[in-house]
Amino acid sequence: MGINEESQIKFSKTAKAKYTDRAIVDLVTRIARDPIRKLGPQDRFIGPMRIALSAGIKPKAIALGAAAALYFDNPEDRDALRLKEIRETKGIDYILKTISEIDPQGEIAQLIKEAVEELKKKGWIREGEAA
Asked: What is the pTM of this model?
């Protein structure tokens, strides 16, 4: 899918160095902002989930991220508020079908829905509240 091993290894090393540097503070509000874009068919969650599944890998960790993105609620993030409104009025299946452009009954959607339930059981997602 256009990703070569050498560039992926270089990216991974750079990312690991960044994520282990305690001098870098990256707030959740920055990381999670713009969840509608990030839930798009080729962006942060759905694109990598497709790649993982095509390689025979169940992307459960990415599904957890997508589940959290579905419930990201920041009053300063216009897209987060819009996503919350869509989720509360039309439901997750609608978001998966129209924003993520995936089958709401397909494998990717099922992994995300399982992740939503896992986060709810942990108390990290509560309906009507921020993730």
From this structure: 0.79
